[in-house]
Amino acid sequence: MSGGDMAKPLLSHRSMEGDSSTPATGRTIGVLGSGDFARSLAVRLVCSGFKVVVGSRNPKRKAGLFPSAAEVTFQAEAVKKTDVIFVAVFREHYSTLCDLADVLAGKILVDVSNNTEINHHKESNAEYLASLFPACTVVKGFNVVSAWTLQSGARDGNKQVLICSNNQEAKRTVAEIAQVMGFTPVDMGCMSSACEIENIPLRLLPAWKIPIFLALGLFLCFFTYNLIRQVIHPYIREQKNKFYKIPIEVVNTTLPCVAYVMLSLVYLPGVLAACSQLYYGTKYRRFPDWLDQWLQHRKQIGLLSFFCAALHAVYSFCLPMRRSHRYQLIETAVKQAVEKKMNIWVEEEVWRMEIYLSVGIIALGLLSLLAITSLPSIANSLNWREFSFIQSTLGFIALVISTLHTLTYGWSRAFDENQYKFYLPPTYTLTLLVPCTVILARVIFSLPCIQQRLLRIRRGWEKGRYVKFVLPSATGEYSSGETSSNV
Predict the structure, then answer these.
(1) What is the pLDDT of residues 124-152, one digit of tens each?
(2) Positive or negative: CA dihedral 290, 291, 297, 303
(3) Residue 175 DSSP code
(4) Alpha helices (H) along 145-288
């Protein structure tokens, strides 16, 4: 597509208001196919005020599947009654439409198909359809919209409809139809973009792959570390079988480690980005690709952190329900009776656990707030200052409170030599490394001298580049550089 075509809006002011000569509503739209998507498409078109004619190879059999307002007839008859036709058949069945080539000439064909694999064919389905019907204008669109979204309405699903074609007028026609149906048309350019559009529905959580692998890697590392300390060490050194701890206790010790480190990894790239801007004295220098990718995945990392924290809370509630825990309570009571101990109250431990649980609940509440505000429906209702305050300020507070939660859990055990199994330090001491680094860096950045410099850089100031102003003398003539002012 030429630059002039791309500069034109997909929906002009006239088409947005409705063209009196060819109004979008009331237009007859054809649908070729009788599958689930074709039926959902017909329902949505009828509800949007269009006249729908469905072409099927067996209209009598398929008529009951479509709304009564839609006319179901043979494909050849349906094609003759409309100029815009949605081709809702699989690529393998395109050849069955070749007998309609003469009738389809000059009409707009909207290809809504998808492939079963990414880049399964050398050419996209839309390009293949265009090669079979060169006398038709093919538009790729509606393939990223699900049948459920079509039936339930655009308010309950993705509102964007990606459209591409080599014909600008055909794109505008399809865009008008999409807008009347309640969707937002997005111009993706010429037909060469069809392959990319067809790959979009086939991608499985593309933005989540790196965060998920990161979370799994951390989980395996901490799980192995805790397994060695809590299960393997007593088995080797004391010949005690504690493998029963693996399903609940070891997992519950691992989950908060992953959640805590993942939360710190949300704010670590911001610290690195600030260090880069301070070092180079500019915001216009591009970050390294790894840092740029890291910054873009912060939302997913944060949500995975909340997920692990929520699981940790559930596992913690289940700890007293275990049979092993009941046996240990009975064993402790028996030992107390044998030793004739009337009071085993330890004031320090009581206060530690009270503070530990209270701080943990607050941290989980803040993480819940961060997770909720990251949802598009909630985030769109907030202005930038509100969103930034919740995600940045409250998020950092959540990291600080999580650090307090970890410290109260460890208390003084870091200085107890019995806690070092196989000379390995307690797990919580390892998790403190990254979060404490982030907290220390944020405190340093909050110092007025550094904060002001960073603020100037983010407002466009660059180190080594300045404007020189020469002030005029009292006589009206410009003086020498001695009275110049550098900004």
Answers:
(1) 999 999 999 999 999 999 999 988 888 87
(2) positive
(3) H
(4) 147-152, 168-180, 194-199, 209-227, 233-237, 251-280
